[in-house]
């Protein structure tokens, strides 16, 4: 009796369960099929079939340049793609989400850096506005760093360019960020340099794991706890002293307040963002970006390869310094130097893929290609900067390429290193140009 009564109910529950599962799973299946169709319609490079992802990853690590070149030639015209990315809204294509995924910020830094990226606005406004104000200090640190690390000698000496350039950039950037005496503290500088390298290496390895294993890999590979401990030793007393001054005077604008990154963060931080640990995390994030976005070392290599450039560059610098002094305004007049640096970045810039964006909603490019949500896209910078459609003789290093462009009628303010455009994407493009590196 019990069995005969329960059977209809069991059957009913089974039917309802199957109907409910069908109702839930069908849209997901349709979405999955639609995504696959969109991806299949996009020209691709690399292996296909079982384990193709692992094989493709290995090939990319060992031969990325050729793979990117093949993909660049198959894709839409580079300039058009860049322009489409520039026009897209943050709700369509997210730079912050792409950076968080690429650098696995949840494990290498902190989720808060992505969830509440208020430090991005600091890079755009107070940091940029204070370049002129702090210029003399930055120059002083540059001179001091060169004197310590590359002292003048009567004879030739060997200097490790890559390591030394990191140290000089680290000291100069930190004079701007945290000031004296911390900017010259050997442990603080060593922490920043090594932490920056560790973030990129850890992220690269974590990204090799499937999603369900990334939390385990992230926990095992991250150096964040030990780095935070070292950073706290240096920064906590400074931050706590600033907070105490605010309490003492009852305002953020207390007398003799330092004009540096710590103060700028405290001015913008809200509630729990003003906790010492959160502030330190954001300082480390900005340090990672600053130390890894410099043309300094490549510029040294280009000067060594083209010694004939030393005299004209030196003559320009000396003439302008005599006229305007060592000021931000004076440096802005050094057109040949600016052209040399921009050409260095174009010709031998380290960015393989830039303008990275996470697709939040299905996005269609001008040529009709649709990229599904959840995909990460970017532009192959080296290929774009060596495209004959963008530049004449792109594989020739022409130090004064952009200087000559600026001498054309009506183009005197164009083609500067700080002026990104569809043909020059070293620092990203659109609303997020330059600040892209500080959104990790």
TrEMBL record:
Signal peptide region: none
UniProt xrefs under InterPro entries: Cyt_P450, Cyt_P450_sf
An example Gene Ontology molecular-function term: heme binding
Keywords in alphabetical order: Iron, Membrane, Metal-binding, Oxidoreductase, Transmembrane, Transmembrane helix
Keyword 4Fe-4S attributed: no
CC cofactor: heme
UniProt xrefs under Pfam families: p450
Record keyword Lyase present: no
Membrane-spanning intervals of the chain: 6-26, 38-61
Domain of life: Eukaryota
Family: Belongs to the cytochrome P450 family.
Name this protein carries in UniProt: Cytochrome p450
Organism: Lentinula edodes
């Amino acid at each position: 009796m019990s069995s005969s009564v329960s059977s209809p109910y069991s059957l009913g529950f089974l039917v309802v369960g199957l109907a409910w599962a069908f109702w839930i799973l069908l849209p997901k299946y349709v979405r999955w099929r639609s995504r696959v169709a969109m991806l299949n319609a996009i020209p691709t490079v690399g292996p296909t079939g079982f384990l193709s992802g692992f094989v493709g990853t290995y090939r990319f690590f060992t031969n990325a340049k050729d793979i990117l070149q093949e993909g660049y030639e198959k894709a839409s015209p580079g300039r058009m793609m860049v322009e489409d990315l520039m026009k897209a809204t943050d709700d369509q294509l997210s730079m912050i989400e792409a950076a968080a995924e690429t650098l696995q910020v949840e494990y290498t830094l902190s989720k808060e850096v992505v969830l509440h990226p208020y430090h991005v606005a600091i890079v755009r406004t107070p940091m940029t506005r204070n370049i002129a104000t702090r210029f003399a200090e930055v120059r002083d640190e540059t001179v001091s760093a060169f004197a310590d690390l590359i002292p003048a000698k009567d004879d030739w000496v060997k200097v490790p360019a890559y390591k030394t350039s990191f140290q000089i950039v680290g000291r100069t950037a930190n004079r701007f960020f945290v000031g004296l005496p911390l900017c010259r503290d050997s442990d603080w500088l060593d922490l920043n340099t090594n932490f920056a390298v560790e973030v990129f290496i850890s992220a690269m390895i974590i990204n090799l794991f499937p999603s369900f294993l990334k939390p385990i890999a992230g926990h095992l590979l991250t150096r964040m706890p030990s780095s935070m401990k070292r950073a706290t030793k240096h920064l906590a007393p400074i931050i706590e002293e600033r907070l105490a001054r605010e309490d003492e005077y009852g305002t953020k604008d207390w007398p003799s307040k330092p004009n540096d990154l710590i103060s700028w963060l405290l001015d913008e931080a809200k509630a729990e963002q003003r906790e010492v640990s959160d502030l330190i995390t954001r300082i480390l994030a900005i340090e990672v970006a600053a130390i890894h976005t410099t043309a300094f070392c490549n510029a040294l290599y280009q000067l060594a390869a083209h010694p004939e450039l030393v005299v004209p560059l030196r003559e320009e610098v000396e003439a302008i310094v005599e006229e305007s002094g060592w000021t931000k305004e004076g440096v802005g007049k050094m057109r040949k130097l600016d052209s040399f640096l921009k050409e260095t970045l174009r010709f031998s810039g380290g960015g393989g893929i830039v303008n990275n964006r996470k697709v939040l909603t299905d996005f269609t490019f001008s040529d009709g290609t649709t990229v599904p949500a959840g995909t990460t896209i970017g532009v192959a910078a080296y290929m774009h900067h060596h495209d004959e459609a963008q530049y004449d003789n792109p594989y020739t290093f022409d130090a004064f390429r952009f200087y000559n462009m600026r001498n054309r009628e009506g183009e005197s303010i164009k083609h500067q290193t700080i002026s990104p455009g569809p043909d020059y994407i070293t620092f990203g493009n659109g609303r997020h140009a330059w600040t892209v590196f500080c959104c990790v």
